[in-house]
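re: ur question from earlier - yeah i can do the single chain one, its not a big deal. heres the input i used so u can compare w yours
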Amino acid sequence: MPFDLAFIWAGLIAFAVLAYVILDGFDLGVGILFSFVQGEDKRDQMMNSVAPVWDGNETWLVLGGGGLFAVFPLAYSIIMPALYAPIIVMLLGLIFRGVAFEFRWKTRRGQFFWDWAFAGGSTVAAFAQGVALGALVQGIPVANRAYAGGWWDWLTPFSVLTGLALVVGYALLGATWLVMKTEGDLQRRAYAMARWAAPATLALIGIVSLWTPFLNAVYRARWFGWPQVLLVVPVPLLVGACAYALWTGLAEGRQVVPFLASLALFVLCFVGLGISFYPHIVPNSVTIWDAAAPDNSLSFLLVGASVLVPLILIYTAYSYWVFRGKVATAGGYH
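and the output i got, formated as tokens:
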């Protein structure tokens, strides 16, 4: 084949996952912060800020999961049994959260329940995503091309830490999104929440980053071996630059810079994962070429993806353009 189809598809799946994390991350973050804000008008404003885009953001989750099943079936058959529990919990959290978007506006008596469904579903989904990520990073035992671990292997101190880190990181994205999209009392509250979420996120990024290379020798060689360290050292330097931009942006009362800096932190963390993983899709066990479907299937699916992905990007960009203004206190964009 003139192209390395497995590599191309690995890039597409990675892009879909990253798009989901940075897009759905901020609206999950809004849900995580929901219970920390009092006042029905402010809570309405928070939900209205993400109401036009939240379901479109989750398109990328479907694309990433469906693409993994279709394109890397071996990896799917190994990863899913290892992570069934956190993934099911994540889906339940997303279901409660999605239903809350619709039902909260239709009841007064039950509004309290749906407020908690929105906040709890967002927090549980974010934590489960982080736990699943941590379990994947720490390694999945494989024997004879199948999952060889136990039911509770996903639950470790490291995976709990990554779950907590993702919740706090999403809270930072949510707070900086509210800084950018709201005004008045809610925006002032969002600044305050971002100022505690920012150092907490940076501290957790540091702890996870220092812990990860010691999970196995491959990660350690990638990050500390010579001369590989020369290739990866720009990542922590860029993280430092983003942290500076985030903190100064919040201190100076800027509205857009903190959100962009928070997104950049997530992108750099994702790049760091790629450095640790590549060329494996199941860390240190299965490469992207071992896990890939036959080339005929990859090329056939790539034709569909070449149409579908640009369409998703176009309607996503258009929806954000249409709703590019701020959310009024009385409700709705202006």
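The chain has one domain: 5-322. not sure if urs matches, ping me
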